[in-house]
Amino acid sequence: MALCGTTNVTKMMAAYNGGSSAVAAHHPHHHHQLQHLPPPHMHHHHHHHQQHQHHLQPQLDIEPDRPIGYGAFGVVWSVTDPRDGKRVALKKMPNVFQNLVSCKRVFRELKMLCFFKHENVLSALDILQPPHIDYFEEIYVVTELMQSDLHKIIVSPQALSSDHAKVFLYQILRGLKYLHSAGILHRDIKPGNLLVNSNCVLKICDFGLARVEETDEARHMTQEVVTQYYRAPEILMGSRHYSNSIDIWSVGCIFAELLGRRILFQAQSPIQQLDLITDLLGTPSMEAMRTACEGARAHIVRGPHKQASLPVLYTLSSQATHEAVHLLCRMLVFDPSKRISAKDALAHPYLDEGRLRYHTCMCKCCYTTSSGRVYTSDFEPVTTPKFDDGFEKNLSAVRQVKEIIHQFILEQQKGSRVPLCINPQSAAFKSFISSTVAQPSEMPPSPLVWE
Ligand SMILES: [Zn+2]
């Protein structure tokens, strides 16, 4: 997996720091070309002959090619866009209209995918033309095709340098800052939901569990969130209310996993998950457990008093420098109100080199002219206004939501490109439509019920 080299280091750092030479001088060394990791799903063939059909047909068929992944909700295949020959990913959202809950969940995810405009967040490039509403059962979303994900990369034998870790963590936090600024909690940040292409560009994906943050602390939120290894202690302890800091906890776990190439807290059960966390962080104070349920607090109080053993993080790898461990310890904070935010984490010096590399040769927000690189004025943009989930309040029946979603998809396509639809005659279509949601074992495990 190739990472580009870095040029104009001083100029870039000067731009970022408003001309502060102190920081520019902080990173005078060269960046090495990173070892190339062969991505598992690269395709180079294009179907240029299909490009010329635009003017002949009001709609274009696309054919599914091969399955590339399984999210919490839905199946992803790679396809070729006949309009430009580009390979893209096609996600089928199946069984959408089974009941009102799944209708709402899918509509929320669809709205989010169409709302996102950020390089480190996967968004919808297109939605396939729906059939007449009487035959409308499934939704197909086209997104950018990414060759791999962080889980596959971490478990592969490929070398991962500290430059990789820095540029990956930078992009995760950059995407998360944007999501949190939109008022969205992802709630299932894990390596498999962080897609990576062959140039190391990373995009957060799978918004099947994402929702708008709940500002009313009296309102209960579901605990059916976050794959266990990346689950924040407040959720393990049965908190009825949580914030976007649950995503930061997950990022801390992933950061440690990038450094150590192994899962940080790999427990067999939610109780053991909590025990592994307190082994590292020590017994939490009563204050840090204030939102926990009584049974969970009793479990901690009954147990032995533990001292924090944070220096063990230095043994993750030789890449666990003082700066890396310092930032990691700001993410792995038991008390969610004291955990660092995505915005503040991005200001940590550990991420300076990742920012530099990203904006020197990976981003789309800066560009190069004959006289050099022109940097964006805002390296980590936020979004205004926030994502509005007010539309969910008035959804009360399956048929009604179906009509609203049908209309929404048609509106998305208005005036843009030739609409795409799936080719039901193709051989691949049969296996594509028969593929269903992820197996139960791939779903986030159910939450612990404290006695
Ligand atoms: Zn940029």
TrEMBL record:
Keyword Transmembrane: no
A molecular function (GO) term: protein serine kinase activity
Catalytic reactions of this protein: L-threonyl-[protein] + ATP = O-phospho-L-threonyl-[protein] + ADP + H(+); L-seryl-[protein] + ATP = O-phospho-L-seryl-[protein] + ADP + H(+)
Stored Pfam families: Pkinase (PF00069)
Keywords: ATP-binding, Cytoplasm, Kinase, Magnesium, Metal-binding, Nucleotide-binding, Nucleus, Phosphoprotein, Serine/threonine-protein kinase, Transcription, Transcription regulation, Transferase, Wnt signaling pathway
SMART domains attached to this UniProt entry: S_TKc
Cofactors demanded by this protein: Mg(2+)
GO cellular component, one term: nucleus
Comp. bias (Basic residues): 41-55
Keyword Methyltransferase: no
Broadest EC class assigned to this enzyme: transferase
Residue segments, region Disordered: 22-58
Domain Protein kinase as annotated: residue spans: 62-351
Main location: cytoplasm
Description of how activity is regulated: Activated by threonine and tyrosine phosphorylation.
BP GO annotations: regulation of signal transduction; Wnt signaling pathway
EC number: 2.7.11.24
Subcellular location: Cytoplasm; Nucleus
Lineage: superkingdom: Eukaryota
Annotated binding of ATP, by residue: 91
Family listed: Belongs to the protein kinase superfamily. Ser/Thr protein kinase family. MAP kinase subfamily.
The protein, known as: Mitogen-activated protein kinase
Organism name: Mola mola (Ocean sunfish)
